[in-house]
Known about the structure:
4 copies of one chain form a homotetramer.
Chain A: E1 2-8, H1 13-23, E2 28-36, E3 41-48, H2 54-64, E4 70-73, E5 80-85, H3 90-100, E6 107-113, H4 119-124, E7 129-131, H5 139-150, E8 154-157, H6 166-171, E9 176-180, H7 192-199, E10 203-210, E11 220-227, H8 234-257, E12 261-264, E13 267-270
Parallel strand pairs in A: 5-6, 5-8, 6-7, 8-9
Antiparallel strand pairs in A: 1-3, 1-4, 2-3, 9-10, 10-11, 12-13
Amino acid sequence: xxxxxxxxxxxxxxxxxxxxxxxxxxxxxxxxxxxxxxxxxxxxxxxxxxxxxxxxxxxxxxxxxxxxxxxxxxxxxxxxxxxxxxxxxxxxxxxxxxxxxxxxxxxxxxxxxxxxxxxxxxxxxxxxxxxxxxxxxxxxxxxxxxxxxxxxxxxxxxxxxxxxxxxxxxxxxxxxxxxxxxxxxxxxxxxxxxxxxxxxxxxxxxxxxxxxxxxxxxxxxxxxxxxxxxxxxxxxxxxxxxxxxxxxxxxxxxxxxxxxxxxxxxxxxxxx
Amino acid sequence: xxxxxxxxxxxxxxxxxxxxxxxxxxxxxxxxxxxxxxxxxxxxxxxxxxxxxxxxxxxxxxxxxxxxxxxxxxxxxxxxxxxxxxxxxxxxxxxxxxxxxxxxxxxxxxxxxxxxxxxxxxxxxxxxxxxxxxxxxxxxxxxxxxxxxxxxxxxxxxxxxxxxxxxxxxxxxxxxxxxxxxxxxxxxxxxxxxxxxxxxxxxxxxxxxxxxxxxxxxxxxxxxxxxxxxxxxxxxxxxxxxxxxxxxxxxxxxxxxxxxxxxxxxxxxxxx
Amino acid sequence: xxxxxxxxxxxxxxxxxxxxxxxxxxxxxxxxxxxxxxxxxxxxxxxxxxxxxxxxxxxxxxxxxxxxxxxxxxxxxxxxxxxxxxxxxxxxxxxxxxxxxxxxxxxxxxxxxxxxxxxxxxxxxxxxxxxxxxxxxxxxxxxxxxxxxxxxxxxxxxxxxxxxxxxxxxxxxxxxxxxxxxxxxxxxxxxxxxxxxxxxxxxxxxxxxxxxxxxxxxxxxxxxxxxxxxxxxxxxxxxxxxxxxxxxxxxxxxxxxxxxxxxxxxxxxxxx
Amino acid sequence: xxxxxxxxxxxxxxxxxxxxxxxxxxxxxxxxxxxxxxxxxxxxxxxxxxxxxxxxxxxxxxxxxxxxxxxxxxxxxxxxxxxxxxxxxxxxxxxxxxxxxxxxxxxxxxxxxxxxxxxxxxxxxxxxxxxxxxxxxxxxxxxxxxxxxxxxxxxxxxxxxxxxxxxxxxxxxxxxxxxxxxxxxxxxxxxxxxxxxxxxxxxxxxxxxxxxxxxxxxxxxxxxxxxxxxxxxxxxxxxxxxxxxxxxxxxxxxxxxxxxxxxxxxxxxxxx
Lengths: 272, 272, 272, 272
């Protein structure tokens, strides 16, 4: 089972947790900890081999840790997600295939598109698809109601090419994951490949991040790049970019769904 | 020998050059060409096995190519360079070692520093070192005179942490090569690692580029990144960054010194 | 349109081809050539913007090139493929998604499995699935007849975990593409991840190659690696390996389907 | 200060160490642990902010840990190394530059070469150079005496192209670090780039490893690759390989000198 701890830093936190686990005869398989000195924050992720009742273990840890400690024992054992899309298929296709074969680590509740192009692929996988034309008045209200009706743990923007309102973003704070088609902070905003082509860069990339009310400014979970050269057109970049976008979003989702990511301020701690 | 051609694009350019070489019984070992559609420009780099008098071959190519064609046969056979430094040693050390063992592809005429910290390492390699305190009045005039006295083909900014004047930059247009410690256009300007740390990126990088009068905006020759995670401090980034800066500058210098780089507008064509 | 040329090397080949194209007023968009000195072989790939009748252009090129030249103008415009699988879904899933969205560059005629586990996913994409229990007597005869009935240009082994007979391999010489789960020649044969774990390597990889009668010895099309560390178990490697296997096979298929790959002796020339 | 622990695995080891450190009011900055299940071995590396007398802390840890525990508090604070070379300069050059600028993390006692080609570069850095013609009778005895006279913590084979005897290797067990010019286990033995060229691989690499009496079979510390294509000759590979060899050896030395590497059986645990 997995134990996550976040609290103000002080001497003895590792000893407190590992001591409590030792008393329970729980063998630590993996332990990762990190202290953000500037923020004076302590983060810890422990994996133990055996299973114990989560609530009881949580209580025992609460006793030995400071009162501000946020402790999660086997957090969100079954992740439910809602996926938002526009027209591009590559990220959604990857999610649907993994979901179908049981390796996504989450349960896709539905797909919501502001176009209908991806409805058929969802139908083929027996995943509910909802069309919400985001451009129209009242669309976000409809979207919110729809999302809420599924009570998802996370909302995945799998190439959703619309900007969500601050209200929506704050409602699902630190629970909306986006894939942006550039190595942020380079080329934030629209048309990053066009910008990249014009700047003549020798690499392009993708960034998966939590969404905040600052466009393309949210905490980064994962990013990666591929080399390009002068002969690569904007259209080539779009094509090559799809591969790296798919890979980076898949990696970010795996990290989040395996409870390896802490979010705080505008950063993430990723125990990969 | 190496032949470079740059001109307006039209049908038959490859045929013209390869036909002329064929008549001379020159066997093409490597041929690379690129057409920038938007700029309507044609670029070509050919390597042939045998040697011929450069001036005569150049004339024969001039005859078969359009009048606007810029042709270079064995351009700059011996590259002379001047290296500008401040205090950081890693790029200079790499250049000096390669130069000493004859694998740099260029001849280091001298090193100019706005500090004296790197004087001793130059002395050990019998390379003239000049101290030009860039902060003082008249320094750039002194620098210009000094650089000119060596008639260098290229000026390499191997971690020269001062901003050169527009006058200086234009004097050596497309001949000043800089290494910037970020994957541009992300984190242009000062303290890129501090910016990177604060943004919480998951990769840092370096960019080698020709210097223009727009700070950190010049044509990019090479760039590369390394992954980082939350636990990497700004100081760690500085340390790790030195490795990637050294590697990227070394690569860019090799490409330029092997006549593999065309510069036009704000871009490069790199036939690597 | 795309023109491929392979022949014995001699002076004037580039001139001959580019001259013939120039006479036809065909503008060269991309030209790549390579000479294998040891084998004395010349390879060339040209892309021109405009379309011309392929047969006529082929004839005109035949006239200006040596008699041994193998010329292909717009080779195999529509690639038909048959996919062989066992139980693992990741490569097949990727192929089916790309095929469904029209970006595979080939037409999947059918999938043949020696298990039935992947039948349902094929059905969902309306792709015929055939079960050929490869372990049984007569299975290869059945397989051959089945494959032949589709007249495929290529056979893709998308994690087909059986060894094909020499007869089968020679029947489809240079047309069977396999994905092997190691960076060959390291860890050829069975259980490469187990071998990799035991050797304590710090990277694992995948290799896409044409199949010959020498197991895991065929011409390599593409390969790539990912870093691992001591904590990665064999099971972790299998999981991480799926990502890299999928990516490498996808890349190799794209290169082959875009006519960027020449095969000769035990090597490939890849004009990527 | 740094604390390393290695012992048989059991419940409570992390608690024991972190508890003892907590009692001493030592704040854990970084904690990494790993359990090799198959070998039933526990490895731990802890960094604490403050300094304490090493011997006393070691004693206190000994009390709370099993009797088989190997504990090192601030192990080998000043690493002394001897470097063995033949003719290639790239790894040695990198080591000398880092050493000169105080960033190697070790003190180079001397360089020993079986050729004299690299004597001058050592002289320029005021590093003693000894010529031991390894081909001659009695050379290894001379080498052993010479190495012993410097009492080095580690022996670095910076492109030493001779095979050391089993006697020599066992004398400095787990203390000899070699750089091999391939991604082992591919292309072990002589001429890996020639082998790589003939096999037509699409990537080449380098491996830093501890030397055992099994040639190229020792525990791997670090390895990395670079992509190559068909046009890369054996000579090109040698040239490109130098870059990756230098980088991989530099990384391995940093990891070892920062006490981040455990060696056991034929593997390493690297807490990087």
